[in-house]
Specification:
heterodimer; A: alpha/beta; Rossmann fold; 6-stranded mixed β-sheet; 9 strands; globular; disordered C terminus; B: mainly alpha; ABC transporter involved in vitamin B12 uptake, BtuC
Amino acid sequence: MTTPPIQLRDVGYSYGQTPVLESVNLRLDDGDFLGIIGPNAGGKTTLLKIVLGLLKPDSGSVEVFGRAPAENRGVIGYVPQYARFDASFPIDVLDTVRMGRLGVGRRESGRESRAAALALLDRVDLGGMAAEQIGQLSGGQLQRVLIARALASEPRILLLDEPTASVDTRIGRSVYELLGRLSEQMTIVLVSHDIGVISRYVKTIACLNVRLHYHHSRELTDEMVEVAYGCPVDLVAHGHPHRVLPPHDAAGGP
Amino acid sequence: MAAGLLASIASGIVGTFVVARRIASISGGLAHAAFGGIGLGYLLGFPPMAGALAFGLLSAMGIGVVELRLRQGLDTLIAMVWAVGMALGIIFASLAPGATPDLLSYLFGNILFVPPAYLWFTAVLDVFLVVVVIRLYRPLQAVAFDEEFSWVSGVPVAALFLLLLGLTAVTVVVLIRVVGVILVIALLTIPPAIARHWTGGLNRMMLLSMAIGAVCITAGLFVSYGLSASLGLDIPTGPFIILLVASLYVLSAAAHFFVGRRPGV
């Protein structure tokens, strides 16, 4: 059996006395495209940072392609929440994307990294924006710049933190179409507090609220949603473009 | 005047990073940390500036390592180093034998009478900074902008962060002797802050802040000299330059507000 891209065993993490993650087990295989949903403060960003190696779990183990994340830097492309950015930082779009080319031991000329970054900007439909200062961009544009930056490192895994938060629906859809195409080449994990983003593009869904509920399927069970959100399933099931819950009469748990 | 021009090159480069990274107060913190070294130099009889350099570098590394380990928030660490350095300087100086050294001369320096050796130090520092920035521009930019992403993609974040702090410490200490503690803080902060109103990239911001620094220092020298001569007063040059560059900031901020070109601060 090949080494899984991501393997978490019994991971726990807490901020002081407050547990954020408890006995999280997760194994992803090549080509997986996992959407993790859960309430705010449910530990989603913390989980991503543990996989990235930015945080060390209090207990349990994390492996990225069989190695500790800190020893495997450059393998994961990271798209952080754009709202947490200092958008007034004096840097333009092209240089932001080129940050992704600075990976471990990469030796390339300025011209090569420019060309690579420009090609990626075309790919995310921002071809004409290379010289813009990042503070001039709309939320959706900045989001795509951050995706291009993550792709610039030619990652084998892509982790996205709330990629469509405060982006309008049309832009959100174009981001998902892009991710759908990318998922043929790499393993993707995205987290969101908004169940609405779980579209037809993700292959599997998990719920995270301190504990992770994952059944390797695209369907959310009533039990998962109730545990994760502590609210009635009907609230999240109706009026949704894609049915992520089984029809009511078929419901009844896994 | 040569001293002023050389000083504006170094402070344009370092100041740009410091302002963009939002740690402008580090120049003040390290400058006052260096005070501890100056005081110790007087007490133990070694060159005060050697003590200043040692204290500045040690404080920079201390701040850097504690921040990387504990993530306390740089502003807190800087404020502590600032106060402790100043306190040590005053205590050491009060214990020093003989006449109490004139710490005030270090506060404002005297740009009109810079020892020739320090002109050379500053010139060497300028060349060194230019070479470092040209070679490491993109990694330094990446770390200043987004440490987490840089780390994830394999950039040696800790080393670059400490390098930036170390360069800041050396720059601050060398410039203390040239322009004084207070003018160092002003030069590292205000010209880059003005440049930030009008540029969207670190490289242009550096060049513009060097130019602003150079123009303000030159103009400050001539105008304060001219005013002093015509009014028969003795207007200190360093503080005059600070007021000049600060007024320029106010004008720039107002213009920027009304023109609204860049989303600066």
